[in-house]
Design goal:
about 325 residues; alpha+beta; 4-stranded antiparallel beta sheet; 11 strands; about 30% helix; globular; disordered C terminus; kinase
Amino acid sequence: MGLTFVTDPVSVSTPATSANLGPGFDALGLALTFYDDLTARVTESGYTVEVSGQGAGELPSDESHLVVRAMLATFDELGERPPGLAVTCVNRIPQARGMGSSSAAIVGGVQLARGLVEGGLELIDDAAALRIAARIEGHPDNVAPCLLGGFTVAWTEPGGARAVRLTPAEGVRPTVFVPSERGYTATARAALPAEVPHRDAAFNAGRAALLTHALTSDPSLLFPATEDRLHQGYRAAGMPGTASLVAALRSVGVAAVVSGAGPTVLALTEVPGDFHPGAHWHSEVLGVDGVGAVVKGGMVEHAERGPVAAGRKS
């Protein structure tokens, strides 16, 4: 028996995310209260994408768009594609800045596809949705918080990606510092060595474990918990402005890290009011999104996940 596609449009708000969080390389991620809004409906033929905001005039408007690619991968998982799709993207998450714009597109596409199929949320549950999104993205650290909300710990098994969602403590107050220039994950990864000293690996294992405790139970420990020796130092030469800002924030006691692969900087504790990052940086105080990318509209009846510290309310 074939799928039944719903006739009404569906929509989803996909949160920005920050991954790594210092020592949690390719494993830890945080959903932020900053969103792209995506809408899709089934059409008689063809694939069209309308983009406004970030990436408008740059991103493709056909089936090569990442949202559509993720939708088609999800439909393929279900065994049938619709005859056509019309997608609208209102993008606010900065592109190529280390705030999970690609993960937001991928997770948004997976969620839209689930919502456009009658019973799609049951046919593909959140665990399967995570596996699809991580397979497209290549690693689960950003797609996990985007899908689930909150603070996530993600890992990959032979069967695919998995993640657990934890609730951040009330004292976690994210601030992002976004530069005008872009950065690219592939370039940042190319700067990493094939091997690291055992002592550095042991150092990061301890800090990552401490960070999980600090984020969920004791934010007073966030400063030591965000120390890293696996990736930020190796990437510093390629992002000198980012490295300088992280150092400046940490010099005044702020738990600051590179957001994802950069160049955005994330502060997890309150930034002094008299701190000035410089003219090339835009700063914004955000909350932690506790909902993730939840599908709305169509025939979907959804129960939102519980909100967490300063996150979006149900």
